[in-house]
Amino acid sequence: METTASEKINCLIIGSGPAGYTAAIYAARANLKPVLYQGVQPGGQLTITTDVENYPGYADGIQGPEMMVDFEKQAARMGTDIRFGLATKVDFSQQPYKVWVDDHKLIETYTVIIATGASAKWLGLESEQRLNGYGVSACAVCDGFFFRGKEVAIVGAGDTAAEEALYLSKLCTTVHMFIRKHEMRASKVMQDRVFKTPNIKIYWNTETEEVIGNKHVESVRVFNNKTGEKQTIPVSGFFVAIGHQPNSDIFKGWLHMDEAGYIKTIPGSSKTNIEGVFASGDVQDKIYRQAVTAAGTGCMAALDAERYLGEKGIH
């Protein structure tokens, strides 16, 4: 690998969602002079969300991209060096740790705060991407409220899909649940809850062909993969709950992860199995996955990094 430049710093933040920017605000205020690389999607998953109504402090709600601009401005005002670039390789074998950005720039750093997030898995339909944020969503807890009293559809068969279907059933008149196989992957207790909920309608062996609508979701066309039979169901919202993929590939072999690739942190902290390396936000949280919880762990990571540098006497 050809390296064109090397730079030594005390605190590197990788990622720029609520976790990364909050870590940056705290790290900058603690005079750690953090450098933050924004990654492939500056602002993270919130930039593909339209209305955010559940983040405290925004009494009238706010658009996701706008909120991330606010976070970025605040981090910059505190003195964070915010840069565009993607971390592509790491070497955590000795201090200072090495992180390559865009394959060629080398950063040597005494602490690393990982806030690379997770990406929702999608079905891969053109119409799903076109209507993303206009009735198509990968987060029922974030967006279900906007479909109160309406009919919606959800795709997925695991615990998350069951949980989101149940959440939607409390708000929506009917929840049409499409399951690709003749059975669900969800735990028995979650399946029982779904089956006992009268306004969740289950479609077995069913796959989505197209989400229909011009400016917003109007209906969804599905087909039975056993019989080939098609039907079009009028809905206002289409939720995809087939899982998330944590953006943790470059840390494989260095950090402890669960079977899905989420980075493991020591409970009650942001610490990983390598000292001086901290993880925050959706790359280590598969349970809550909210902007406010990501911001909270970003704060934890910056405080943990500050303590670590203090204990090591690094200034």
How is this fold's topology laid out?
Layout: E1 5-14, H1 18-29, E2 35-37, E3 51-52, E4 62-63, H2 64-77, E5 81-83, E6 87-91, E7 97-101, E8 105-114, E9 118-120, H3 126-130, E10 136-137, H4 140-143, E11 151-155, H5 159-169, E12 174-178, H6 188-195, E13 200-203, E14 206-212, E15 219-224, E16 230-234, E17 237-240, E18 244-246, E19 277-279, H7 291-312
Parallel strand pairs: 1-2, 1-8, 2-5, 8-19, 10-17, 11-12, 11-17, 12-13
Antiparallel strand pairs: 3-4, 6-7, 7-8, 9-18, 14-15, 15-16
Helix pairs in contact: 1-2, 1-7, 5-6
What report would you give on this structure?
There is one protein chain. The chain is an alpha/beta fold and 315 residues long. It folds into two domains: 5-119 and 244-312, FAD/NAD(P)-binding domain, CATH 3.50.50; 122-240, 3-Layer(bba) Sandwich (FAD/NAD(P)-binding domain), CATH 3.50.50.60. It contains seven helices and 19 strands. Strands 1, 2, 5, 6, 7, 8 and 19 form a seven-stranded mixed β-sheet that branches. A hairpin with a 5-residue loop joins strand 15 (219-224) and strand 16 (230-234). Helix 1 packs parallel to helix 7.
